[in-house]
Amino acid sequence: MKRILKNKLLLRILLFVIIGFLEGCRVSSVSDNLKNGDLLFVTANDSGLSGAINNVTQKEKNISFDHIGILKKEKGQYFVLHAAPKGGSQKQVLKDFMNEQAKEGQRVIVYRLKREYRKAISPAIEKAESMVGKPYNFNYILNEDSYYCSDFVERAFRENHIFKLEPMTFIDPQTGKTNEFLEKFYKERNIKVPEGKPGCNPNGLAVSDKIKKIKEL
Prior knowledge:
By secondary structure, the protein is of the alpha+beta class. Helix content is 39%, strand content 21%. It has helices at residues 2-31, 48-57, 94-103, 121-131, 149-157, 180-188, 202-206; strands spanning 39-43, 65-74, 77-84, 88-93, 108-113, 166-167, 198-199, 211-216. The radius of gyration is 20 Å and the shape is globular. It starts with a helix and ends with a strand.
């Protein structure tokens, strides 16, 4: 009986070791060839707020995004600096960030600043870290007290003019009228739809001529 229990214990320990090894390999493979300052774009969902925002901001037919973060490598570990509804402006472990996207069925695409613009990375990361702790901007109207995802990234790189603010639009290209979901969204908040106000979005940032697509994680 003691031998059986001992064998079971050894098998259990071996199983934990194998699981840990496989998890380590998976994380390692995800972070292969990633660089400090890489931009992680998250693909958009088709419904809800994500779908509505994508409806009025999508630039390319074959792919669209509803979230973005900045990768930081620190002491051999990878983190994502980003602003999200859950947690606001934050510094999140890459593995946790990836797991959250996977649970939502969303993919992560890596973009990278072109060589001539990479000097902007260090000050951008420094700026991004200074914004950690700020709440999320649920109204998507620029202010200095809270940030939404693309706003967070644009501000981080603003000193070097990597991205730019543009007049926002909430017009459904299919109907020529304000997207119904977004119209209701702002009505419930007793806010006028901020059509034409300066802002940014992940799809707009993705088409910047200062960055290039690298791979999918």
